[in-house]
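Regression check, glycyl-adenosine-5'-phosphate case 535:
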Amino acid sequence: MNMDSIVSLCKRRGFLFQSSEIYGGLQGFWDYGPLGVELKRNVKEAWWSDMVNGHDDMSTLSGAPSPYSMEGLDCTIIMHPQVWKCSGHYDLFHDHMVDCRETKKRYRYDQINGRWVEAKGRKIFVTAPAGDEEQEHLTKQTLKFFKLRNKHIDDLKWDGPVVCLTNLENFDEVLGPDAKSLGSLTEPREFNLMFKTFVGALSGEEGAAFLRPETAQGIFVNFKNVLDSTRHRLPLGIAQIGKSFRNEITPRNFTFRSREFEQMEIEFFCHPDQSQEWYRYWRDRRLKWYHDLGISGDNLIMREHHQDELAHYSIGTADIEYAFPFMSEGEYGELEGVSHRGDFDLRSHMEGKLDEKSTDLALQLNADGKPKWKGSGKDLSYRDDLTNEKYVPHVIEPSAGADRATLAFLCEAYTEDQQPDEKGKMQTRTVMKLHPRIAPIKAAIFPLVKKDGMPEVAKEVYLDLKKHFKVFYDEKGAVGRRYRRQDEAGTPYCITVDGQTLEDQTVTIRDRDSLEQTRIKIDECESVIRDRIRQ
Ligand code: GAP
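Current build output:
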């Protein structure tokens, strides 16, 4: 699987375009084209239907400690600034960056690796962006700096292993990843990832607000509203799909790290005593969701975080990761995080920002001994009307990215195989083997030839199916070529009206993956497609 081929297909077939492309594009922003918008909508729809509307709240699902309820929510992107102060994003949501004075490039401090190397009697610390072809980059940079040729590679004396730049205190002898001279990297500086804006006519700090960097906080601050309006008992999950914004320093890898993206988040509120069981349930449930939609076991892993990787408030976190083609062999990128957040979020919005350094998560105080950021003061605890027990619920958070999931489905679907063309000659076929549930177009309808009444019948079939699914009509060019175009678009079924149709009202239905063609009655088309999509 080659990322360049996937990116090129996405542009050519209208899955993804660079935002504002005619003006040179805007880094970290992407537009979904006609096929892409359908694919992403289907991904979100599958998530909503499987997690929220289609959830069976009457049964105890496999692996769950009990039945539970699910509700949805749609909150605003701009919320009261105090939300971000109490949640910790305002203080904490920053990265440390280093700038290169020479090349004007900016890097994440913790994503630059380097190694001490000696040549021509001088020792320097040469650096490269962490990840792909790191050592190759280090060697090239070193040879360039010392004005040596490839044949002198063996003259370089490497000292010690590759380490992160964060291990160095002084950058005087550091050669930046793209620099020609030493000492061009600045000291690390903080960079806030939240986009700032101004509400109303005031452009001063009184009107300052932020575009949300996650959808989760909208759920926490509405917990009581949802509980009171629906009269559910816990356990209760509240789900939201929506845009989030992060001023990422290094947006890269297509849509993987964007500055505007969509999240699909659930905050699941439960009794503290049952939270570990629910955590395990949600980890497994979410992993299975990706499997069920066609991501193979080899490319998908669940990675439990080590204790030292966990956020201060997190009792446990597991990432669901995918082997994206732009990652090095054996590396995976995060698709979704499932975290056990304890009562951190609800307490933060009740009491105020909590001190991440204190072991019992005490309220963070300012120099006057007052809360650094005051909470809402509202009681967000829950009283169980059966036991009369009152407690602050614990939260399990499965937090997925709609764009990352869509990208993973695209990467997983991309396949090249060899198939015979109309003349029986073997040709390379590009086929997007998307699960029929998320495929942008469910079926394409073709008349075999553009005469003998076939287009008329095919158009009737098309208009009838259009009432139920996203379908496509095509009568242009050789039928083999029309099949190929649909294979590239990921269309699972092609229905062809031919000479026999006019005699017995049957059509052929071709399966994209097996290439098998079967004859079915015209009036069975809808039910056949519906059944196959469900499988
Ligand atoms: N409320 C928890 C939270 O937001 P996160 O790990 O920062 O956690 C959750 O984000 C998911 O959102 C990620 O697993 C990823 O799928 C998606 N995501 C985060 N940052 C993203 C970005 N810059 N571009 C695309 N997707 C992103």
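Comparison notes: Residues 34-53 form the longest helix (20 residues). The radius of gyration is 28 Å. No diff flagged against the previous build.
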